[in-house]
Amino acid sequence: MISESFIARPPSSGTVAGFIAWGTGELAASGIEGARREARLLLEIAYGMTTGWQLGHGDAAIEDAGAFSELVARRARGEPVAHLAGRTGFWTLDLAVSVDTLIPRADSETLIEALLAQRPDRGSVRSVLDLGTGTGCLLLAALSEYTLATGLGVDRVPQAVALAAANARANGLSDRCSFVAGRWDNAISARFDVVLSNPPYIPSGDIPGLMRDVADYEPVSALDGGADGLDDYRILVPALRRLLAPGGVGIFEIGIGQDETVPALGRAAGLRVEDVRCDAGGHPRAVVFVM
């Protein structure tokens, strides 16, 4: 909870070091982990002062603290830093984000790492399909590595499709990809060398217990995987048999505890499980299927 002192008396001016200390205290009091690091990030968002610059200019004056105070208040209520900044980094890309899509996270980069391990020859991939594309992060990251490839991103949310297309333009990849609004693989008749997906996989009953910056600010439709978290895998995994080109690879993100159930769905559909790759935290995160 935000303290009464913050609500009634946000500072009007001060030094960089003073504002970092104040912001750190307010964020820590509201339960934000890494409060000092986040205070520095918010100061950078508000005034363009990089963390490196802040470290060397702690006594620099800030005459109008309104922008910083507002960001601290919003973050203390749980609003994600990426939403406050309007963008985030993913792989080697800079991506715009919005409330209409999941915020790209480092865990999802595991899918790109798995793809590179499976297809180290950068000329070996010519077509990529991304189901539930959101910001376009997976498709655009794949295209940035496989420069001869073209791709298609599908999302049922029209606003997400527009955002992904804008991210493609901003990263110089719009000439090699397109985005359409649709429900998963409906009406797709082509086959692809690579199919990527980060479907909703949180069991419905677990969503209220997620961190508030996820549960309160990210779209439930992109989180809720049904009673056991597997609803969308039951659709997507069997679809790989008609979506993958001969020798193709399908890579799906999974949640905690799904490293046996999702591969089992693939085996039941006649697919081979080539790999289950862990993220940086050591959690199984990407299942690799091949025809």
UniProtKB/TrEMBL annotation:
Q: What class of enzyme is it?
A: transferase
Q: Name one GO biological process term.
A: methylation
Stated EC number for the protein is 2.1.1.297
Report the leader peptide range: none
What range(s) does the Release factor glutamine methyltransferase N-terminal domain occupy?
20-86
Q: Which UniProt keywords apply?
A: Methyltransferase, S-adenosyl-L-methionine, Transferase
Which residue ranges does the record assign to the Methyltransferase small domain?
111-201
Q: Which GO terms describe its molecular function?
A: peptide chain release factor N(5)-glutamine methyltransferase activity
- Catalytic activity annotated for this protein? L-glutaminyl-[peptide chain release factor] + S-adenosyl-L-methionine = N(5)-methyl-L-glutaminyl-[peptide chain release factor] + S-adenosyl-L-homocysteine + H(+)
Q: Which InterPro entries match?
A: DNA_methylase_N6_adenine_CS, HemK-like, N5-glutamine_MTase, PrmC_N, RF_methyltr_PrmC, SAM-dependent_MTases_sf, Small_mtfrase_dom
Per UniProt, where does S-adenosyl-L-methionine bind?
Answer: G132, T133, G134, T135, G136, D155, W184, N198
Binding positions for substrate per the UniProt entry: N198, P199, P200, Y201
- One matching Pfam family is PrmC_N
What Gene3D superfamilies does this protein map onto?
DNA helicase RuvA subunit, C-terminal domain (1.10.8.10), Vaccinia Virus protein VP39 (3.40.50.150)
Name the HAMAP family for this protein: RF_methyltr_PrmC
- Function comment: Methylates the class 1 translation termination release factors RF1/PrfA and RF2/PrfB on the glutamine residue of the universally conserved GGQ motif.
Similarity field: Belongs to the protein N5-glutamine methyltransferase family. PrmC subfamily.
This chain belongs to the protein called: Release factor glutamine methyltransferase
Specify the species.
Acetobacter fallax
Name of the gene this protein is made from: prmC
